[in-house]
Design a protein that fits this description.
This protein is mainly alpha-helical and 186 residues long. Helix content is 64%, strand content 5%. The longest helix is centred in the last third of the chain and has 32 residues, at 147-178. The model has no long low-confidence stretch (mean pLDDT 89).
């Protein structure tokens, strides 16, 4: 997956300015593919140079006016090509898990900090799960079963399932931490 493909997807859904894309990333695509304002603008320039998007004609002089972009046929073709291509899953990287592995090697003297992070992460994942569940209730009532709705709902379900996994795992990890002996050296 790449940022250019995420931008093409968002622009096929709705032609937008860079600022509008940034806001949409914060509210939807950003849940599973994040990007900064600067990254989005940099990619918009590259996509335009490659002939995948174009700046929409402005009603007024362009000076100081925000540019809006739309996807060209070459951009749709690239997005379709990429969608059909096979990709292997990427390995998961998580600093908290690495810190726990390190504590297993060097001893549990510093686990209070890890335990505090486990609690903080649990709170964050619970809040994210609640937000996803609200989105599901609002955006996917019974009967919304077009192909587009079903695919979007599957993406949301992935988020719900991941957050459910993390809340369960973090709860289990905190239970285990409660049973660790204090300051066990390596």
């Amino acid at each position: 997956m790449s940022l250019p493909h995420a931008i093409l997807t968002a622009l096929v859904e709705k032609p937008s300015s860079g600022l509008e894309l940034t806001r949409r990333f914060d509210k939807s695509i950003g849940y599973f593919w994040s990007a900064t304002h600067q990254q989005i603008y940099r990619e918009l320039g590259k996509l335009e140079a490659e002939g995948f998007i174009r700046t929409l004609p402005s009603q007024q002089p362009a000076r100081g006016q925000k540019k809006s972009y739309e996807v060209l046929p070459a951009g749709r073709a690239e997005l379709a090509r990429w969608t059909a291509a096979s990709q292997d899953p990427r390995p998961h990287r998580d600093t908290l898990l690495l810190r726990m592995r390190a504590a297993a090697v060097v001893g549990t003297e510093g686990v209070q900090g890890i335990e505090a992070d486990l609690r903080r992460h649990l709170d964050l994942h619970r809040r994210q799960l609640a937000e996803y569940e609200q989105i599901e209730k609002r955006d996917f009532p019974p009967g919304r079963d077009s192909s587009q709705d079903r695919l979007r709902h599957l993406v949301l379900r992935a988020g719900i399932d991941l957050e459910t996994f993390w809340t369960q795992w973090l709860t289990r990890a905190l239970d285990e931490f409660a049973e660790l002996p204090p300051h066990e050296p390596a």
